[in-house]
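Anyone up for a design puzzle?
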């Protein structure tokens, strides 16, 4: 079944309770059958003299961005990258990251986007599993890449400095304070610097654009799904372009003259799709922030005066607790969007009160989604932002609530598992058909539905409410952390016998992992052992996954079948 043909059907009557929030011609979407790059380019030429990216005061117009993407595409082709090859982008929010993403898509290759602070093992595994041939990475990842390159199929690594696109004075300051501390060798057959790589694009004279359709794979992003086991999520051109079409309906007032504070990173689905691709498709300016400092939040707002702020609950905690925000005027802000985790009704109320106190007429809009659904599935837009809710399905999406046991659809107000279908469903988990079938189930209507593992309910207006997660998962600063995966890594340490990981509250990150460890017989608890285990975690876990606390015990509570009793550990922590 062609999902893009299916979603073009006309709804002449209210088929769904949430249809009432949309005009009749806005209940479905039609997505051009093209690449992400082609979709962007068509929109960009309409406002080519408007600033697309603002990076520490360096401004790149849409016309200039298209040109840079074209040169980067030529540079990639000059290095032998072909259609369906995989290019890993390991970057924070810089112009080079955005340029690389669109250039990779333009030539028909696939962008594997990973966290630059991922552990050495995670980066190596991702590169190997995706069969990456070329890497574009921030220089902070140089040592890691140098250590693993010989174990992969990668033949070229492009090294980018955060100062490459900075204004000259600011770039010089970065060089003195940061870059000179890095031990990076000169360009060679394997490693090449961005500026030299980019120059090679000028001498490549052949055509670079490859025609792609909606169902072609475009991006690999990463998640633990509902099991916590790392997976490569395959998103298509159509997945991303569908969200662009949905954004046009949900945010009709965003366009030229608007700007979004791009704090969420591109390796996060929310950061890539909602905070980068969508505003660029609408003609707004993306203010790139490569490293977010909560203490400087007020300076970002004073300096750039964004009209759109989007982030995870952690960001809004930083906003309302920043003492320097006292006299900051936020009257220019039109939209305030929260996603990545649920925002409690109390915190939602506090944020709205804060906005009002700072002359802002906007109310925070909560959204709900996951990487497997290309980010947003529902959002509290168009008057659907009821207290405690996560909004209505975006046009073309459908949500239903199923009984966990019978799989029968629940009535309005009854709690069950949140299930999703629509043009935003991922293509698959890469090379993992079993997990793909578990995640996406074909229902009697003939459509594939994602079973989220989240509990919620829908009211008679079609407004969705999140209740809790079924899966064992923590949300750390908006990132999914699976305790079972952290335990698996710690248990590989030769001195560890048993391990249990739980989440504990954190004033800024909301939750952080805490590890309870039983050492093997004969191993004494001392600082050297603790240091060794921490180093093991540093090498094998992303920074945000590393436990904040390590506790050594003689034993851990067990269930009747002999497994670690995590609920008992959580109860102990609360007492």
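Challenge accepted. My sequence:
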């Amino acid at each position: 079944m062609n999902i893009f043909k299916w979603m073009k059907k006309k709804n002449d009557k209210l088929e769904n309770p949430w249809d009432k929030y949309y005009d009749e011609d806005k209940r479905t979407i039609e997505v051009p059958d093209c690449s992400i790059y082609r979709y962007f380019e068509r929109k960009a030429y309409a406002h080519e003299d408007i600033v697309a990216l603002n990076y520490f005061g360096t401004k790149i117009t849409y016309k200039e961005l298209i040109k840079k993407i074209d040169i980067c595409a030529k540079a990639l082709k000059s290095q032998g990258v072909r259609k369906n090859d995989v290019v890993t982008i390991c970057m924070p929010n810089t112009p080079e990251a955005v340029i690389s993403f669109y250039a990779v898509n333009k030539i028909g290759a696939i962008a594997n986007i990973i966290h630059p602070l991922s552990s050495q093992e995670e980066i190596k595994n991702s590169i190997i599993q995706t069969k990456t041939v070329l890497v574009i990475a921030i220089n902070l990842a140089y040592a890691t890449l140098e250590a693993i390159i010989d174990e992969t199929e990668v033949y070229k690594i492009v090294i980018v400095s955060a100062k490459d696109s900075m204004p000259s004075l600011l770039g010089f300051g970065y060089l003195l304070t940061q870059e000179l501390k890095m031990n990076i060798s000169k360009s060679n057959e394997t490693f090449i610097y961005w500026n030299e790589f980019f120059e090679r694009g000028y001498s490549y004279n052949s055509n670079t654009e490859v025609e792609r359709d909606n169902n072609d794979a475009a991006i690999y992003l990463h998640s633990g799904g509902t099991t916590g086991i790392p997976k490569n999520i395959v998103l298509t051109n159509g997945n991303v372009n569908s969200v662009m079409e949905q954004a046009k309906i949900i945010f009709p007032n965003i366009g030229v003259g608007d700007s979004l504070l791009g704090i969420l990173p591109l390796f996060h689905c929310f950061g890539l799709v909602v905070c980068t691709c969508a505003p660029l498709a609408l003609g707004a300016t993306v203010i790139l922030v490569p490293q977010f400092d909560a203490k400087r939040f007020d300076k970002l707002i004073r300096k750039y005066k964004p009209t759109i702020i989007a982030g995870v609950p952690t960001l809004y905690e930083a906003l309302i607790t920043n003492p320097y925000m006292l006299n900051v005027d936020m009257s220019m802000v039109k939209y305030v969007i929260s996603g990545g985790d649920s925002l409690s009704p109390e915190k939602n109320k506090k944020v709205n009160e804060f906005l009002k106190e700072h002359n802002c007429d906007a109310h925070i809009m909560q959204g709900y989604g996951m990487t497997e659904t290309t980010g947003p599935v529902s959002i509290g837009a168009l008057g659907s932002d009821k207290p405690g809710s996560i909004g209505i399905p975006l046009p073309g999406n459908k949500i239903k609530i199923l009984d966990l046991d019978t799989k029968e659809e629940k009535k309005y107000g009854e709690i069950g598992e949140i299930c999703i279908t629509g043009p935003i469903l991922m293509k698959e988990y890469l090379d993992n058909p079993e997990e793909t079938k578990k995640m996406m189930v074909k229902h009697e209507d003939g459509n594939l539905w994602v079973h989220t593992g989240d509990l919620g309910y829908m009211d008679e207006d079609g407004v969705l409410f999140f209740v809790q997660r079924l899966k064992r998962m923590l949300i750390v600063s908006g990132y999914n952390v699976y305790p079972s995966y952290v335990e698996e890594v710690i248990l590989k340490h030769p001195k560890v016998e048993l391990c249990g990981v739980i989440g504990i509250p954190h004033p800024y990150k909301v939750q952080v992992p805490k590890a309870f460890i039983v050492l093997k017989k004969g191993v004494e608890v001392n600082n050297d052992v603790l240091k060794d285990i921490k180093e093991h975690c540093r090498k094998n876990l992303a920074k945000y996954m590393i436990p904040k606390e390590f506790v050594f015990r003689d034993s851990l509570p067990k269930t009747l079948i002999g497994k670690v009793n995590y609920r008992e550990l959580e109860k102990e922590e609360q007492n």
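A detail worth pointing out: Residues 490 and 520 are 13 Å apart (CA to CA).
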